[in-house]
Amino acid sequence: MTEIDAPILYGDPSHKSIINPDDWIKYLHKVKGTSPPKLPDYCILSFKYTRAAKYLIDDYRADLLEFFGKDREIYIFKYKGTPMCFTYLGVGAPLAGMMFEEIVPLGVKYAILFGGVGSLKPDIKRWTLIVPDKAIRDEGTSYHYNRPSLYSYPSPLLLRILEKVLKDEGTEYIKGAVWTTDAPYRETIEKRREFMRLGAVCVDMEASALFTIANFRKVHLAAIFYAGDLVTEEGWDARIERDHKRKLEEVVKDILKYSMETLHRVHSTASDNE
User: Fold this and answer.
1) Residue 215, domain CATH
2) In terms of residue numbers, what domain contains 36?
């Protein structure tokens, strides 16, 4: 047998996995003695630094499910009568991908991801909304789900409806590629230049993997981000602003509204076609 040059590229995504998310759900059911919940079809995904769950509890009376334990929060609520759920993901493609995988068997079919991203352009001001139409696969997780390629893509259906919601609200946003990396301390000048040439306007650590996993599992996923720190050839700028906490709360509430409205419209469209 010849030596493998790049182990991450060995094998094929079509090969059968030894363990699947269903197996983990069954294991938890066995050890906890609690039946797995049936989650709504529609889900919002984010990260703990957004504190989004607080607003859903306060404004939509979201209820906490504890099937996965205290370290894994999943909330159930309704928006305009449409049942939805919300959960935090771990930061970084491997953990975020694993946590996303575990809610798909519980019923999630349509999901919106949101969080903060690093801006690659100084003229993209902090808090600007960014809707990625593709993601550059500079991470490792996605290669276990799809063969090597430059980009992964969000759901065309969710992307179209999300953009329609933003336009109906009169909300300005930027559309472009997101560069997804596992190694934020290895964002080099050379990579930045090349990936910007390929359409990147921002950088994150999850999107390309989550888009790929969603496609692999045959569910729909799109994303909406807000611009955070700045990554340029001159260096890194956290761009902490006066009234930072208030501005973060405002942008998170706005994005929650746009995400919920997008999922509600998907539900309404599906209901009309039944």
Assistant:
1) 3.40.50.1580
2) 18-273
Condensed to tens digits (0 to 9), the pLDDT of residues 218-231 reads 999 999 999 999 99
Does the pTM surpass 0.85? The reply is yes
Residue 7 has pLDDT above 80, yes or no: yes
Tokens of 69: 């334990």
Answer whether residue 1 shows pLDDT above 90: no
Residue 3 lies in a domain: no
**Within-domain flag for 8:** no
Q: Is residue 78 part of a domain?
A: yes
